[in-house]
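I am writing to request your help with a piece of structural work I have in hand. I am sending you one protein, given as its amino acid sequence and as whole-number tokens for its backbone shapes. Kindly check, if you would, that the fold set down in the tokens agrees with what the sequence suggests. You will find the record immediately after this paragraph:
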Amino acid sequence: LSTLVRPHEMIVNYGRALVRSVAVRSFMKQPLQLPLRPFVIPQTRVLTVRKMNTGAGTDSSSTGGAGANEGADGKEEPKKSWWTSAEFWGGLGALAGWGMTGAAIKDALTAGPEIISPNMTGVMLVYSSLFARWAWIVQPRNTLLCACHVSNVIAQCNQSRRLIEFKLANGEEADVKNYAMTGAAIATAGVVCVFGSTMMQAAVVGANLGYVSTIAGAEAGPFTVHFWAPMSKWLISGASFLDLDRPTDKISIAQYTALTATGFFFSRYALLVNPINYVLCSVNIALFGSSAWHLGRKIKADYMQ
């Protein structure tokens, strides 16, 4: 590039070399050979010019419509559809999660405490606490889902307060005592799991127990929230199955509408996140079936009979 930029220096060098060549060749009676070396441009400089031109071409093509969608091999990258979009299904699941929060708020404002199920309320507290953490660390992060589960924890705590006050007002102190003991045991187990899971996982993996150690070290293994968040949904399904014969006048149509939608949306969402969570998929299928059963009973009793 410097040779091309300063042509006068090239001419001067060529003249000097020509003079020297003429003098030497005439003295030795040899034919004259013109020195051509000053005209040779180093190959590295030519390559540099070519790279700059190639880069410029790439930049100009990338600004076009077609070049932006092509990969290194020249093929167009596949476009994502709504069916394969984790953001789409996760957003719908988050909206359904907000439905659970809204159902608890609606029941607190318009319904009496006698419709509150102690089993479902306790399970909801555990479930939303775990899923708030899971939604925060999963990739892609689902902040909308995390926020709705934090809100649901607050709403379910208010429902628990209403239920306890109702039980105490009706002289059911024994039930309240059982609720308190169960809650304390669950809270203690949760603290132990949160602060001791890393140490326990390292011990099991380091013990080289074969398949057991492999499962313990998995990304969605039993020492991670990726495992226990969907397992808490099994508790919701279990609570629904235990209440299969619950009187329809004690079934919240808002709550079971939200649970049915949650099970439907998350059964697909679980197959699109990283890591793929088959446990979450299966539990949401079960949640969808059990919640749809109660919802159907409620709609039939209130609107079809």
Notes: Residues 51 and 120 are 67 Å apart (CA to CA). The chain has eleven helices and no strands.
